[in-house]
Amino acid sequence: ATAATAVALTVTGAAGAMAQCDEGEIVIKLSHVTNTDKHPKGIAASLLQQRINDEMNGKACMEVYPNSTLYDDDKVLEAMLQGDVQMAAPSLSKFEQFTKVFRIFDLPFMFKNMEAVDEFQNSETGQAMKESMVKRGLLGLGFWHNGLKQMSANKPLVLPTDAAGLKFRVQPSEVIKAQMEAIGVSPQPMAFSEVYGALQTGVVDGQENTWSNVYGQKFFEVQDGTTETNHGVLDYMLVTSTDWWDSLPEDVRTQLETIVNEVTTSRNAAIAEVDAEARQAILDAGGKIVELNAEQRQAWVDAMLPVWEQFKEDVGQDNIDAAQAINA
Ligand code: LMR
């Protein structure tokens, strides 16, 4: 893992640089919405690009388009079905049109930490989720971690009642909308690329996201502070189109699969470090972080937990039980 981490960190600087694909190579366009520096997805995508282009030279070539330069997440999956991109890694909250199985990850306080998320995803139940969209033309290649979400607003948030009456940007997820409504917040779905502007101009008052996204998008600059709630998970599915995947020569598919699996394992093992680095970078840049004591955090748990009941049937009590058994 250490060697892989070192490699990944050295490619970060080159992230986003377009690969020069040669004539005859299978071109793999990977479109995503985050930055590439101090970001789990940005680093993983860059490493994937580097390994494919080094090890599959002459056969296949990857071009990574970060920062929503090619598509926002609300367009990328349609674009994939049209054959315009071959890979993407939207957050698990962005697949509602295709499957509801990922709703378990949006339920607040479902997993106690990222190790629990990792264990659940690597269980038989979790791995089966990669094939939950095959009928709709999408195949999951691997879960990619980002981390736990935090809350920020244009006023300090210590208790959930501090957020009541505010408007928060949310990802397009019914569970997240319900979670916000549970604390009296009005949820406003919006593309990731528009959030900074919306916070800056006051179109919305707050948002929830991970340290790497709060840092990467500079949300801390236009918020009063970020509260360390760790209330939910933001993870990704690296996804491809079944048509494209099935059309690949078998040796190419096998080699790609091996590289994807190795990148997934090594980068998922390194997220704690990337997350901590982004958190520290916010502080270094003058951003404010509000830490909660046990009692204050419990108030967020109490306010949000009723959301489970609303989605119990969609998510499946057996899946909830499996997640809770991992936490224990
Ligand atoms: C968001 O829309 O807030 C995130 O899903 C962005 C990302 O890809 O991390």
From TrEMBL:
Compartments where found: Periplasm
Keywords, in A-Z order: Periplasm, Signal, Transport
Regions annotated as coiled coil: none
Signal peptide coordinates: 1-19
Pfam family, one: DctP
The keyword Nucleus is assigned to this record: no
PANTHER family: C4-DICARBOXYLATE-BINDING PROTEIN DCTB, PTHR33376
Family: Belongs to the bacterial solute-binding protein 7 family.
UniProt name for this protein: DctP family TRAP transporter solute-binding subunit
Protein source organism: Donghicola mangrovi
